[in-house]
Amino acid sequence: MDVDTSPLETVLLDTIDLDLINNFSCESQDNVINEFLSTQAIDKHNKNIVKTHILLNDDSTRILGYFSLFLDHITVGKGHREQQKWDFAQKLFPSIRIQALGVDDNFQKKGHGDFLLATAMDYCIDIAKTAGCTFINLEATEDSITFYERFEFVKAGKKGTKLTVMLIRIEDIE
């Protein structure tokens, strides 16, 4: 999916005024997105476990949205590989996880989620070109599955009762 990303850009979490985090609210996903940004993202970002990218408004006074990435691996079973017509003998693959992606409630339905996901996918493509990586994976809440399917992510299983593991082969988006 092509998304015009020219007028917007993200900045890394450690370059913003951290007080902005307190005003971010994305309550549509069981508060998981708020919780990650307010309680885990800073620590994990500073420890180089996850890198969080922030989309700010024009005057840098509000967080419009964010996404977080980390290196991962994913197991893809033979049946799923055959269903998707992925010709791989192994079942364990290098992957980049979109740990979290959210848009502030006040700024939803304006294309910011599309921009953030397209930007995250672009970063993943760049990483794959230099480090080798097969998939992008994420864990989607029920209300976000159709959003990711628009970008051609496919369901790859369940994690617990509330999350659906989704992935896309990087080769299919380059």
Describe this structure as you would to a colleague:
With 174 residues, the chain is an alpha+beta fold. The chain has a single domain (10-172), classed as 3-Layer(aba) Sandwich (Aminopeptidase). It has 4 helices and 7 strands; from the N terminus they run βαββαβαβαββ. It has helices at residues 32-46, 78-84, 112-131, 145-150, and strands spanning 10-12, 51-56, 63-75, 92-103, 135-141, 154-159, 163-169. It is globular.
Number of strands: 7
Query: Any idea how many domains?
Result: 1
According to CATH, what is the class? Alpha Beta
| CA-based gyration radius | 16 Å
- Please describe the biggest sheet, giving its number of strands, its sense, and whether it closes into a barrel: 7 strands, mixed
| Helix/strand structural class | alpha+beta
Helix percent reads 25-40%
List keywords for this structure.
single chain; 174 residues; alpha+beta; Aminopeptidase; seven-stranded mixed sheet; 4 helices; 7 strands; 28% helix
In short:
With 174 residues, this protein is an alpha+beta fold. The protein has helices at 32-46, 78-84, 112-131, 145-150; strands spanning 10-12, 51-56, 63-75, 92-103, 135-141, 154-159, 163-169. The chain has a single domain (10-172), classed as 3-Layer(aba) Sandwich (Aminopeptidase).
